[in-house]
Amino acid sequence: MARVYSDVNQRLGKAWYDYENSKIEWSQPDRYEIVRRVGGGRYSEVFEGVDTSGNDLCVIKVLKPVAKSKVKREIKVLRNLTGGPNIIGLIDVVRDPSHRYASLIFELVDSFTDWKTFSTRMTEADVKFYTFQLLVALDFVHAHGIMHRDVKPGNIVIDHSKRKLRLIDWGLAEFYHPGTEYHIRVGSRYYKAPELLVGFRTYDYSLDLWSVGCILASFIFKREHFFRGADNNDMILRHMKALGSEKFDHYLQKYDIHFETDAEALLSNYPKRQWTDYGVNELVTGEAIDLLDKLLRYDHAERLTAREAQAHVYFNTVRLDASAPKEGHVSDSGFCST
């Protein structure tokens, strides 16, 4: 059971989480025009568009054919989170007359396109500010009984010139119910929590906090991806080489997880490494390492929650607004979106 917000959906009632029986009022697509393609993936194609009723720019996410329940779930989640801090705003849902293609219309955030370049130019103030904003978003999401399940740099858009962050792509999000067995084929490999890799299905919100830890590690060590495994077994191996094999074994035993492998490397013993072994620079401070160490834990029950992480001493200056950059500020890194 999750340490926090475990009874949210029970308290809010079936109308809050029952997306299967929710009714969607679709709009006609005529008022929206595609301008250019900006991305896409397994489940959708994403375009910059314009709302011709007011000539406002927007994002048009054209969904590829998937199960109706998946579409309903994403829309239900987005509508439930409407107005939440740092959550991408859903403007409209449209479907063509043939009912074959559905699209979600979102607010447009003028974001950068090269995350790798941005992440290596971030100052300490930038890292603290944006990590904190991500935690604010996740605490709101979790407090409303929802797991994102795919937190990664590609699902975070930042308008650096306006100090604006938005958490996007809610296609894998799910409502949390204690004791429920969930699908483990969620998330993106480099940001998958250990519970997904070892087949532990009764996971909870803490799944998202592991991903935050991976992002923080990539920030402070100036790597595009901190754990970069070739496959799931290789990801586990990289976790073991960082956190040690002894704690991994204790984790499996504590939750009675039957993890079988014939990969010789996974049967070896590895000591826990010091975080500073991965590099030392102006971002690798004692406070940053302490926060990272409390996020990247095998045992999901030991990870900080999003609310607890916000209270960490690492974010003192952000919370007190003593040195957090103001609206429109461009950091000394000289990087801003175009």
Automatic annotation (TrEMBL):
It is found in: Nucleus. PROSITE patterns: PROTEIN_KINASE_ATP, PROTEIN_KINASE_DOM, PROTEIN_KINASE_ST. GO terms for biological process: regulation of cell cycle; regulation of transcription by RNA polymerase II. Its EC number is 2.7.11.1. It comes from the Eukaryota. GO terms for cellular component: cytosol; nucleolus; protein kinase CK2 complex. SUPFAM superfamilies: Protein kinase-like (PK-like) (SSF56112). Residues 32-315 form the Protein kinase domain. ATP binds at residue 61. Belongs to the protein kinase superfamily. Ser/Thr protein kinase family. CK2 subfamily. This is Casein kinase II subunit alpha. It comes from Cylindrobasidium torrendii FP15055 ss-10. The lineage of its organism: Eukaryota, Fungi, Dikarya, Basidiomycota, Agaricomycotina.
